Amino acid sequence: MAQAKAVAKFWITTTDLLDHVLKHEKRIQLAEPTKDVRIVHRLVSDLFCRYVQLCRSLERCYDQTLQVQKRAVIQQLLEAGQARMLELRTKLQEIELSEFVYVDGALQEQHLIPDDVLAVRPCYFPARRPDELQALLDAQKLPPFIEPGSDSEDGSSSDESEQPEEEQIPVEKGINRPVVKRDRRKERLQAALNLITAHERARQARVRQTNFRLHPDRYYPKPIDEEIVDVPYEFFYRPGQFMLYPVKRTVYNWDFRMKKKDVVHFAYYAPPGWEEQTVRLASVRWPDAKELALKQQAEEEAAAELAQAEAAKRLEEALEHIRLNRAAAKIQRYWRKFKALKTQKKHRFDRSKFLGLFDDYEPKLGDALAVAEVRAARRARQPEFDRSFVAAIADEKARILRIRGPALLEDITDFVRAWFREWYDETLAFDLIPEPFQGGTVLIVRGETLTPLEYLALERQKQLDKLKTPEQRKKEADAMKAAKEREQEKKREEKARLKELAREKRARERKEGKTYDFTEPEFMTNAYLTLEETLARYRKDWAFVNELDNLQDLPIMEWITLDKFAEVHQELHAEVHELLKSERELLQMALCKDERMKYKPPKPKKPPRAKGAKGKKRKEPIDPTADLSVESILNELVERNVLKTCRQRTFEDYIGDFNYAAFERRNRLEQDPPPGMGEVRTILQSYLYGMGPLAAPKPKSLCLVGPPGYGKTLLLEAICNETGSTLFDLSVDTCGPIEPNNMAYFLQLVLRAARLLQPSVLAIEGVHRAFYKKVPQPEQPLDPAKLGKHLFKLIVKQLKPEDKVLLVGTCDQPWVAKVGPLKKCFDKILLLPRPDYGSTVLLWQYALRRFPTVPRDLDLSALARVTTGYSAGQILECARQVLNIRRRMQFGRKPLKVGELLDHFLAGTTPQYPIADKEYEKFVKWHRKVDKLAKQRAKVMRERQLLAEQMAAKAAGAKK
C-alpha cells in the first residue's frame, strides 16, 4: 500500500514537472529569431537537460505503474518525451557539427552534474520475446561469437579468460567413449598445493630431527613405572596418493623418542640409561662433636645462601617492576599521541564537512539492493495486471452483448427500415446502403448519407444534362478543363514561388548565417505537440479520478464499458448490414415489378487499392522464404553458424572518462577537441532507445571504427546484452562457404529470422573486407565482395523504422574499402577515440583492482602519464600477464612497483608502443570523408584558422 501510494505521488510530481517543461518551451518559442549560434545552443541545451530528467522520471513511473490504463498514458508520454529529447540532441549535433555534444553551460545554470544528463539503460531492457520463440531459441545449441581462449580484438582480460579451456578426448569412429572434461586450472592449483605441503612437511621433519640430535636430554625422558602402549605408525602407499619426490627423502615414521619399555613384567631388565639404585644396610653410629659442628656450619651456610638468593630475587622483582613501569609509560605515551592525532583528524574532518568541501554520504549497497528487489518484484506483477485487464474487457464485452446486444440490434434495424420508408415516401426509390469499407450502416445512423432532396436535385440535374446540345456540353467541358488548368497553374506557381523562397533563404543563410526561429516546425515538432495533447487529454479524463484512493490499481470500469459498448455497436452494424442489404434488394425488386421496370442488380464496389507516391500500384517483392517454418529457418541458420551467443558484457565494461575541457575549448576557444571514451557510451546508449518495445527513433545501421584493442567487439557484445538481442554473425568468414548465387536467398533468410526474433543485431566484424578495393590474394577463395553487393539492397533498405533490428559493423582498416558503398550501408559511423590521461587512469585502476592483493595506494599518476595513448586492450593484457599467480604470491616480501608494469611494454621480447599519431590520423582523415558532420566541422575549423592567420598578418603589418 505504501509503495502504491508513493508511486502515485511520484506520478503526480512527474506530471507537474512535465507541465513545467512544456511551459518553459513555450517561453522559448516567444524568443526573437536570432543568428547567434551560442544563444541557440544555450537555449536548446537547457531544454535538452530538462527533457533528460523528465524522461527519467517518466521511465520510472512507467516501470512501477501497475494500473493498465494509466500505464498506457505514461507510455505515450514517454515515447513522445524520448523522441523530443533525441530531436533536441540532433539539433545540438547540427549546431556543434559533431556527434558528441557538450552542455556544460546548462549544467551550471541548473546546478546539475554530468551524470544527470547521461543516457541510461531504459527499464524495458532487455526486451521480451514471445515465449514460444524464446523456447525455440533456447533449445538451440549456439556457438560463441568469440571463441574461448582466442585473442579478441578488444584485448580485454576478463575473469573467464583466465579459466582453462575444456578439453575433450577424441572419439574414434565406431567407439562411443565417454567425454572427460578436465579442469586444468583446478589441476594446476591442486599440484601447487601438494608441492607446497610436501616441502613444508619435510622442513618440519628436518627441524625435529635436528632438535632431537642436539638436545637429547630434553627429548629423551626417562621411562615411568606404568604401562605405556605405543601406537606404531608406518608409511604405506595407496593408489592416487601424491608421491613426495622430487623432495629430498625424509623418514616421516621414525620415532625420535626412546622406546619406553614395560619394566613391570621384566624385573631384571635395565633399559639403556637406567641406573638401578640398591638400598644398602649400614650400622647405626652416633655423630660426634666435630660432625655436629660441620653440620651446623653447613646449615648456616645454607641459610646465608638462601638469604642471598631471596635478596637477589627481590632485586630482580624490583628491576622487573621498573621495566614494566617503563613499558606501561611508553604504551601510554604512544596511546595519548594516537588519540591526539585521531582527535585532530576528526576536528579537521568536521571542519571540512562544515565548509562543504565534500559530501560524507556513503551509499549502502544493501539498501540499494533491497530497493532494486522491491522494484523488480513490483515490475514482475505487471503481466498479472495485464491479464486481469484483458479478462475484465472480455467479461464486460460479453455482458454488453448478453444484456444490450438484442436491443441494439433491433434499434439499428428499425432505424434503417425507417430510412427505407422515408426514401420511398419522398422519392419512390431506395438508396444503396454504403459498403463496410465506406462506413456501412453507421453513416445512415449518423445522417451522413445522401438525403432524398439531394437525390431529387441530382436526378433533375441529370435530366437537364440530357437535354443539352453537344455544343453546350463541349463548352462546359472546355470551361471545366480551363478552370482545372488554371488551378494547376496556380499550384505550379505557388510551388515555384516556395522553391524560389527556399533557394533565396539558403543563399542568404550561406552569406549572412542561418536565422533560427523557434516557432518554425524544426522546433515545434510532432513530439512536442503530442506531449501537449496527451497531457491535456489526461488532465481532462482523469480530472474526477482520485489516484491516491485506488491503491489496489484496479481498472476504471466506466471507461471499459464505454469502449466496449462502441465496439459492440460497430460489430452489430456489420451484422445488420448483410441482413438489410438483402431486404433492400427485395424492396427494389418489388418496386421495379410495381413500376414495370427492368431490375438491374447493383454492381458490388471494391475497396480502393493502396497506391504509391506516384499513383502506381505497389509491387510487393517476392519472398522465397515465405513457405519456411520458424524451426526450419532457425535450424538452417544454426547449421551455417550464423546464430551465435556472446559474452555477458555491459557498457560499464567499456572503461573511459569524459573530456571535461571539451566545452570550454569548443565554445570559447573555438578549438576542435577529441571526444572522451565516456562519451562513446552515452551516444551508443542513446541510439538504442528504439530497440525496446516502445516506439523511438533509431538508426538502421552503425559502424564502429578504430584501431585493434579499442573495444569494438566489447561494444558490440554490450549492445546485444543491454537490449537482449539475438546475435547474427554475418562476417566474411561466415558467409564464405555460401555460393554467390545463393547470397540473396541467404540474406533474405537472415532478415526474416531477425524480424521474427527481434530485437536482433546483425554483426559484421571487419566490415571493410566486404568492400575491398582490391581483394588480397589469401582471401580471394572467400569472395568477400559478394556480401557487399547485396548488403544495402537486401538488408539496410528493407529495414523499416518499426523493426527492432540493428546492423552493427566493426572496422580497423577502413582505407582499404570503397568509401561510397560502405558509407551508403551505415547511417552512423563512429570513430573510437584514443584513451586520454583520465581514461588511462581509470583503465589502470580497473585492471589492478581486479586482483584483491594489489596495494590500493599504488601511485598510478606517473604510470598513466607515460602510458597515455596505449589502447585499453594493451593495458588490460599487461596487468594480466604481469600480475600472474606467482607474482601475486610474492607481494608479502616483494611489493609491486609501477616500473614492473612499464617494463612489460618496453623490456619484453617485442616492445609494445601506442598507436602513432600519423597512423591514427589516417583514421581521422577517413572519418572526415564519410561523416557529414565531421566534414562540415573540418571545413569550419579551416575557415577559422585561415581567418586567424589573416588577422595575425594584418596585425603584423600594422605594427610595421
Largest sheet: 6 strands, mixed
Give the helix level as a range of percent: 55-70%
Which range does the strand content fall in?
under 5%
Helix tally?
Answer: 31
Uncertain stretches: 155-178, 224-229, 243-279
Radius of gyration, in angstroms, nearest whole number: 45 Å
Q: How many DSSP-defined strands?
A: 6
Mean pLDDT: 81
Termini, distance in Å?
Answer: 83 Å
Estimated structural class: mainly alpha
Widest beta sheet: strand line-up: 1-3-4-5-2-6
Describe the structure.
It is elongated, with a radius of gyration of 45 Å. The protein has 960 residues and is mainly α. It has 31 helices and six strands. The model is unreliable at 155-178, 224-229 and 243-279 (pLDDT under 50). It has a six-stranded mixed sheet with strand order 1-3-4-5-2-6, with helices on both faces. It has helices at residues 2-29, 37-64, 68-96, 104-110, 131-139, 184-214, 216-219, 289-355, 365-380, 382-403, 405-427, 441-446, 452-467, 470-512, 526-541, 557-594, 630-639, 662-667, 677-687, 712-723, 732-735, 743-756, 785-796, 819-825, 837-849, 861-866, 872-882, 885-889, 898-906, 917-930, 932-959; strands at 643-644, 701-705, 726-729, 760-765, 805-811, 828-831.
Give short descriptive properties of this protein.
elongated; 960 residues; N-DRC_Component; ATP hydrolysis activity; six-stranded mixed beta sheet; coiled coil; single chain; mainly alpha; AAA+_ATPase
Structure at a glance:
The protein is mostly helical and 960 residues long. 57% of the residues lie in helices and 3% in strands. It has helices at residues 2-29, 37-64, 68-96, 104-110, 131-139, 184-214, 216-219, 289-355, 365-380, 382-403, 405-427, 441-446, 452-467, 470-512, 526-541, 557-594, 630-639, 662-667, 677-687, 712-723, 732-735, 743-756, 785-796, 819-825, 837-849, 861-866, 872-882, 885-889, 898-906, 917-930, 932-959; strands at 643-644, 701-705, 726-729, 760-765, 805-811, 828-831.
